[in-house]
Write a structure and sequence with these properties.
- The longest helix has about 40 residues, at about 15-55.
- This protein is mostly helical.
- The protein is about 95% helix and about 0% strand.
């Protein structure tokens, strides 16, 4: 039982878990920003293509 409590204390003191969570949150935010940027660029490009199509028609 003593080794179990020692391993729990070691786990609680280690900083690997929170660091991994921080990296996961940063990665999620970067993905969200990238998706928003791609969506905005796609919408702008679609608008330009529609203007060109209308002009050529």
């Amino acid at each position: 039982m003593k080794s179990f409590s020692a391993s729990v204390m070691r786990f609680l003191k280690s900083e690997d878990g929170p660091t991994a969570v921080e990296y996961a949150v940063m990665l999620a935010l970067i993905i969200v920003v990238c998706l928003a940027a791609v969506s905005a660029v796609g919408s702008n490009a679609n608008g330009k293509f529609n203007k060109v199509r209308t002009y050529l028609s």
